[in-house]
Amino acid sequence: MSFEPIVRAVGVRKVFGLVPVLDSVSLDVRGGEAVALLGANGAGKTTLLKILATLLRPTRGTATIAGHDVARVPEKVRPLLGVVAHGAWVYDDLTAHENLKFWATLGGLHADADDLTAALTGVGLDRVADARVRTFSAGMKRRLSLARVMLARPRVLLLDEPFSGLDQRAKKWLEERLEALKAGGAALLMVTHSFGRELGVADRLAVLAGGRIALDTPRGSLGADDIQRLYVVHAEETP
Amino acid sequence: MSYARRALAVAWKDLAVERRSKETLNALVFFSLLLLFVFQFTLGGDRERLAAVLPGVLWLGFVLSALLALGRTFLVEREHDCWEGLLLAPGDKSAIYLGKLVGNLALMLVVEALVLGLFVVFFDVDLGRAMPGLLVVVPFGTLGLAAVGTLFAAMTANVRARELLFPVLLLPVQVPVLLATVKATEGLLLGEPLGAVAHWVKLLVAADAIYVVVSLLTFDVVLEG
Amino acid sequence: MAVVKTLGWLTAIGLLVGLVMGFGVAPREVTQGNVQRIMYVHVPLILASYVAFGVLAVASVIYLIRRDPAADRVAHASGEVGVIFVGLGIATGSIWGKPTWGTWWTWDARLTSVAILFVMYLGYLLLRGTIDDPERAARYCAVLGIVAALDIPLVHFSVYWWRTLHQPPSLMKPGGFTGSSSILWPLLINLLAFILLYAYFVARRVRLLRAEAEAAA
Fold this sequence. Notes:
The complex is a heterotrimer of chains A (239), B (225) and C (217). Chain A has helices at 45-52, 74-77, 96-106, 113-122, 138-152, 168-183, 224-235, and strands spanning 5-16, 19-30, 34-39, 60-65, 68-69, 81-84, 156-160, 187-191, 204-209, 212-218.
């Protein structure tokens, strides 16, 4: 199922001080589609994600989500987004349940206790729902983050390595949820470092190298080895 | 109404985190005790001198505690990038300001009550007649500090030299509040009724109104990114 | 560019005329002597700084509404020139005060208010200096500029009441005498000259800021 691109980056350039991190990035993500963004460390994947998430402004170029310019009208873009970034957005001194309730309320969602419990059960945190997050492992905090995003059922998902730190059961759960969101028309952009079955969700692969999208191809029937080979060729190329 | 719910959620969250971690509260309590000792060593001997400087010393204690409490108010958001979560929250961000303000106000009033109690005990101060007036002046003065303090704390949360910049920005702007509260407290402690210091109280109320309204209107701009 | 050059020439002429009148033509003050002539520089500096901070407040509001970087540049430049003028104003006031009233400083209403103003807007410049992202700096400084401007009447009243209620009014009023026209005219001309100087500095500074912004993009 493919609609018009919901996420459009055109010629996005980002310079920090004198260091150009992104040179000219153009990338589309359509509704019902998941794009996996690969690249070496420091290639700028997180920077691109942050620009799309309205957390950073591009130096030049435009990025739009559902037609709204992320730099000019971020307040119109933000309600559409579900973001799982590097930090988990959790308060260590609150319980898992309280964290979820806080973000749900702040996001204007009408989630009752059952919705919250269901979300926690989905990520396998129902047994520790009333434990303080301070006691959680990094993977558990990541799972709580995912529960938060899933509650909101966003139209656009921006995910920074969503599968890292998850065990097999949680990975399977996440795959299912992402597929369900895709089926509902959401656009997904996933930054990822792994070439394994996590890429199963992705419909397209994009490689960020030299500040540009060096490769943008449908995943099709590419296996992990093929992908790895493509990655090495494009990502490690110096322009 | 979603606005009120969001503001309450933020206030509840801050107070819950504070109640459980007690980080800021502990710091404030110890700091207040320290101040008390310093005041005793430098002023305690001469009762007349102490009575003369008591209003100033009291509010000095309140202001320094306020700087500590307000300067830290967005620190909890720095862990795990919760600040990003606040930035990306949809809707009117001034609800977040209101929630933070309520939480800060509650914390500061608790500490001020404690400090006041310590002053009464350790300096043998008789607050009896001044109490009704103080119950007006202290909360309005605290609101003035917290209103701008919360706004400036958000502005300085992510800048370099935050600990230096926050008091440098806040204190000059707070001079009207400082003057009004100290002069009003001075009058009350001298036995004057609240009516005698009414002009200071009116200034305080006007200042509070201006600060809260401006902060509510501009908080969205600060939390844009 | 032509505007700026004209402004520069007008400023130079104004300053020349004003200072000649103030330090040469105007009568020597009877009790204070020649040091009183500093007033012709001191008062215009302070008043021109008020203009600067007023412009800063207006430019801040315009920036928040229209997000025009030009408005931010005007606010930035006004802040810089305003702080310098207030600083020099306080310094000249002290230089005037020491031989005249025997002290460099006193906490009377006017001096206290001006000192608070100086520190407030110094903080404004500090805030600008610590934020790297120019867009965020513009936004935050605009908010601070508005808060500071709204605070000024509160500062004025609170300090004035503090110094005058239950206390004898201060005898030191550095600009508060009604002089004859031979004193008033040099004062007004210098005031105009210093406002032109402010405008000229701001114009130059805004051009420099715009060039810097364009180079960074």
